Amino acid sequence: MQKPAQNGAPAANAAPMGECSPEYRSLPVGESAASLPAAVPKLSIIPLVFIIFYEVSGGPFGIEDSVGAAGPLLAIAGFLVLPLIWSVPEALITAELGTMFPENGGYVVWVASALGPYWGFQQGWMKWISGVIDNALYPVLFLDYLKSAVPALGGGPPRTFAVLGLTAVLTLLNYRGLTVVGWVAICLGVFSILPFFVMGLISLPKLRPARWLVVDLHNVDWNLYLNTLFWNLNYWDSISTLSGEVDNPGKTLPKALFYAVIFVVVGYLYPLLAGTGALPLDRGQWSDGYFADIAKLLGGAWLMWWVQAAAAMSNMGMFVAEMSSDSYQLMGMAERGMLPAFFARRSRHGTPLVGILFSASGVLLLSSMSFQEIVAAENFLYCFGMVLEFLAFILLRVRRTDALRPYRVPLGTAGCVAMLVPPTALIVVVLALSTLKVALVSLGAVAVGLVLEPGLRFVEKKGWLRFEVNSDLPDINVTRTPVATDEPLAP
After folding, report:
1. Which CATH class name applies to 45-462?
2. What is the pTM of this model?
3. 469 has which bridge partners?
């Protein structure tokens, strides 16, 4: 690896402005733009599918609130319709832009290429905060599923120590490398899905299809309903921050996204149909953790314990997958000179140690929030980031028509715009239904990012921290003026 250029200076062998990353084109199969140590293996398609599964879903844990908020019919319809409106377009965009820019910056690089480095940083800030908030949810769900069996985990010091211990163990898994994360995701995924397969078989003699059609439009909590659906069907773009760690991303990433979409949707609908169809409806009982009670009613205590164990394992899988994306995103931003250079350093396992520690610290700070507060806050921030992604996707289609795209969404520019109208409308609805508290907190987080980027440039100018651009990364059609430091750092 060549020594990175300092202070944001472009590499000498960078592509001419306006060209689309020719260095990507010349890399051998299985290589990313940023070279890895030779001993660090890359992700193949099966571990990648399960990592995507855990970044988006992890199983049906957490979808219970959709029934409590709106009843069986709207819950089932939501998990049938929303994937077409939201999940498929987001996965298609991720497949095209993730293969166009196969590096760990992911969506940060997409937005920076289309809108400039300032907005690329804002995208990274909002998505990182949203991801950390999302990860803070998994200890909450983990303990919610176990507190019925271990009441002491409902609050107080035992709950606090449980959160600390779980976070420490899962952070260590991330430190050990993406190969470990990938195989952990496979094992946890199989274990987490199996009890619901069994529960579905047991429910067959008791199914009453009429129960699926129950709806009361006058008694719907639209805010909770939409936030629950949205939270359970987004984050397809998170895998883009691991693109530089994927074996042959031009072919592997689109295939993995295709299989993962099917996996996720079936993983939601199958237990939802079993639970609502086999038991009389009591909407008041349908909240996070209720699938364990359903399992007990249908199969007995043994199945309840299995579902609770699967929930615990699933939350472990979601935690490690989300932390991987968050930490590699910070590393990718550092390799583009958006963050201090120490974020780009890899451990001896090839992992971004500083990014992992930062992400784990954020999780611990936010883990005291409630389930509903976490979901609403992360959705609000995520919506802003997705607006920038949609805009970047269209602008790159218009401005860089000849750019190399190993995978291309099979639509023209007008078709792409039409594809994005429904998800954009959904974003407007989700934002409009947010509470004032969630809106103020989320907008405050956005405001921090708006001043943080010029603050980092000031720190760079003063020479207080080192910023570097990895010269192995290709040009992304971004001009970043080198900052002359007042007091250059010693080499």
Report:
1. mainly alpha
2. 0.84
3. 5, 336
